[in-house]
């Protein structure tokens, strides 16, 4: 089975559309979204509609939780709070109810795949994993992890290979899973990459041959940035799309 896994769309309709179009040539059996469909961008309803119609399941991200009233985000910086408040006002009742219903984690036991937004250690805290020391916090729960745990949140593509006592960071390139190891993989961001590559990030996992693939695709950044500006959101949310940070 071929799974299309993506995360952190952040209301970027142009990037989401490009990623889904690119997926069309990959014979995907199921799609999964790892959270943060909303926040930052100019198209929260459009992206929510598309994700709801496309994916098998979606994970709750921190921006989704904030917009849905499921977490305190008063400590976020002002521009981010304003975007979240704006999206909460814009979302249709159907999309708001959808965000309110999203789970923190999904375990695909038959495929040995775990899905969550941030670290699986304290799901409701939305903690990051972008360095080996953060991945090491997962070692005490080694037996609870799937063969592969897929996360978003950091907007970075990262691969960590785990044994019961060690963590090794691997290059974020296509690889086949070692049956004697477990993996935590950060799939990057569709709508707001932060690795200085402004192309939308999306991934594929073939559960039969245990192969994980990273993909990138160009999209109409000018149109996405224009939506941000027309929504009177922080101008930097538009500018950062061009440089991928």
Description:
There is one protein chain. This protein has helices at residues 13-23, 44-54, 62-67, 78-90, 93-101, 132-136, 221-230, 235-243; strands at 2-6, 30-33, 57-58, 105-108, 113-116, 148-151, 157-162, 167-170, 175-176, 182-187, 200-206, 211-217. By secondary structure, the protein is α/β, with parallel strands linked by helices. The protein has one domain: Metallo-dependent phosphatases (Purple Acid Phosphatase, chain A, domain 2), CATH 3.60.21. The strands form two sheets. A six-stranded mixed sheet has the order 3-2-1-11-12-9. A six-stranded mixed sheet has the order 4-5-6-10-7-8.
List keywords for this structure.
alpha/beta, single chain
State the fourth-level CATH superfamily: Metallo-dependent phosphatases
- Level-1 CATH class name: Alpha Beta
- CA radius of gyration is 17 Å
Question: Helix/strand-derived class?
Answer: alpha/beta
Tally of helical segments: 8
- Order of H and E elements: EHEHEHHHEEHEEEEEEEHH
Strand content: 15-25%
Shape: globular
* CATH architecture annotation: 4-Layer Sandwich
User: What's the total count of β strands?
Assistant: 12
Quick check: average pLDDT? Answer: 97
Which ranges are low-confidence, i.e. pLDDT below 50, for 5 or more consecutive residues?
none
